[in-house]
Write a structure and sequence with these properties.
globular, about 375 residues, six-stranded parallel β-sheet, alpha/beta, eight-stranded mixed β-sheet
Length: about 375
Amino acid sequence: MDTTAFNRGKGTADGPSSPDSNSGQSFQSWIGFLKRIRKRSLLQNKYNSDYAFIGVGNHSLNNLYPVIHYLHIPLKYIVVKSRETADLINENQPVTRATTDLESVLNDTSVSGIFICANPDSHYDLVKKCMLHRKNVFVEKPPCKTIEELKDLIDTEKATGSTCLAGLQKRYSSCVTILKKQLKIKDVISYNYRFLLGACPEGNPLWDLYIHPLDLITFLFGETELLSLAETKSSPSANSLFLQTKHNQLIGSVEMSTQYSWNRPLEYLSINTGNGIYTLENHQSLTFESKSGNILSVPREKIFHTVPEKKYLFEGNRFLPVFENNQIVSQGYFPEIKTFASLCENMKSKNRSSLCSLLNTYELMTKIEKNV
């Protein structure tokens, strides 16, 4: 049986490819081209300045150093307290020099940016000292503990021409980035925010933990009026704060607690607008559920029994181990560090957590601190 015509018609190896086959090959080549562009942009990512890091703690080792390594940021120095720690780093990290001498680092003109993630009580002094040496600064939250110190750092930043970015990563999270673009403040009616964690035996829950939700509401909704505040406390390390807030005409309810569990932490924000409801959960999910509206003041859903449409604006995918699904990215650590490095290199980038932008947050936290 002669199968030549059959093979040619089907576009096998014995005959020419069909138009559909050519289309498929073209599509595959486009995919390969895009992959090569992405790979090249990562491998060619280059920073011209040198950088230093002050501190080697659990948070920095787990969330900050991996991002710096991924971005190929040239980390010239790591500043630590003890010589023993410095020797350990120097034995295992030959490219980076560990030192206990901060002054020598500050006097190195090749260093443009300094990351600070040390004891929070030392942040204010370290940030000011670095900026007085005209270094750009990334500082983990909180950059300082009082609004007076914040204003002093803002003045120092202006006087020296340095740039400071505060490590409030939730402003850079994938969900908040989308929400900030879509949310129209004039349409917001109210919101409900729950931030529930386990006990906090070390540090101050207000400045170490609650700063995150308090900063996020000022970032999203602006200047905050504190209408009421109540507290429950079961131990020195476990308390709950219940806030009633107001931002112009919209009203908010906030619960922040260290009386729950670290095994099942919850960060839940529901925003009620005229058109629908935004729901953010643990910065891994952001949805919008539309409202059906009214007919002559009668809810349309009562007449037609319609099911509300729910859109997933962001949903973390734990199955695919790709860049976008990594929680270091979706939680905001990667974007904030990349933003800081870009600012140091004079690349186009927006500082979403500048010192000036924290004034509303610190005013709110000062009011709370005075009343608990």
